[in-house]
Amino acid sequence: MTPQDFAQQAGITFHDQSLLRRALTHRSYVNEHPESLEDNERLEFLGDAVLDFLTGALLYNHLPEMNEGQLTRLRSELVRTEQLAAFARELRLGEALLLGKGEEATGGRERPALLCAAYEALIGALFLDAGMDAVSAFAEERFIDTAEFFLQSETLLDARSKLQMWAQAEMGETPHYRTLEAYGPDHAREFVVEVSIGAALSGRGKGRSKQEAAKRAAEDLISRIDIHATDMGRSQID
Predict the structure, then answer these.
(1) Annotated catalytic residue: which of 39, 77, 103, 120?
(2) Which residues are CB-neighbours of 142 under 8 A, at least 6 positions away?
(3) Is residue 68 annotated as part of the catalytic site, yes or no?
(4) Is 8 helix (H, G, I), strand (E, B) or coil?
(5) Pick the catalytic residue: 48, 103, 194, 220?
(6) Are 215 and 195 in contact (CB under 8 A)?
(7) Dist. CA 224–CA 197, nearest whole Å
(8) What is the pTM of this model?
(9) Could you state, in order of their start, the residue ranges of all structural domains in the chain?
(10) Annotated catalytic, 120?
(11) The domain at 3-150 falls in which architecture?
(12) In the CATH hierarchy, which fold is given to the domain comprising 159-227?
C-alpha cells in the first residue's frame, strides 16, 4: 500500500506529502535507501507529546467527576504501546510502512513497538501538517470509544469509584460512608460500613479493614441499583 493509498483509506488529508512519507519511513528503510532523507523517529517523539496532551484534554473534558489518579491510569491505558499498536492495525498502518528488507522479513509490519512508533509518528506528522484540530478530528472518536471500553474494567475502576461516578452523574450526590460497627480482637478486627446516597439508597459491607468494608458496601449498593459499567461509561462520555 502506498502512503497516498493509506491516507485515502484512513480518511486523512495531507497537504505536505513529504510529512506523510516521513511518518511511514522506518530507520531500516533509510539504512538501505540513502536517498531517503529522514526516518520517522523525530515525528514519533512529537506525536508522543501530542497524544499525551490530546488524551489528557479528552478525558478531562468528558469525565468531569473522575479524580486525577483515575484520569492518569486511564490515559496510561490509552497510550500504552499495545493499545496504540491496536489503533495502527485498525488503520492497516503496517501495510503502508517503508521498511528495510531485514525488518520486513522478521515481521516488522506486525511488531507492536514498531506499529506504536509509526502511529505516534503519524500523529506528529498530522499535527505539523494541519494542527491539533485535525489530530482531534482523526483520533478523538477512537480514543473515546476505547475509554468507554476501559471504564468497564474492574482493574481500572473499583466499586467505590464506579458508585461515585454514577451517583454524581445520575443524582448529583456524593456517596456517604460511615462505620456502623467494629468488633473482634485487635488481630482479627471486623468492620461494618454503610454507604448511602441521599435518603433512599444504602448498602452495607463487612471487612477486615474500613477500606475493605467500604468497598463491599459499594458493591452491595451497586448490585441493589443495578449499575452497569457500560451504561455508566456512556452517560459520562457522551
Answers:
(1) 120
(2) 87, 90
(3) no
(4) helix
(5) 48
(6) no
(7) 12
(8) 0.65
(9) 3-150, 159-227
(10) yes
(11) Orthogonal Bundle (1.10)
(12) Double Stranded RNA Binding Domain (3.30.160)
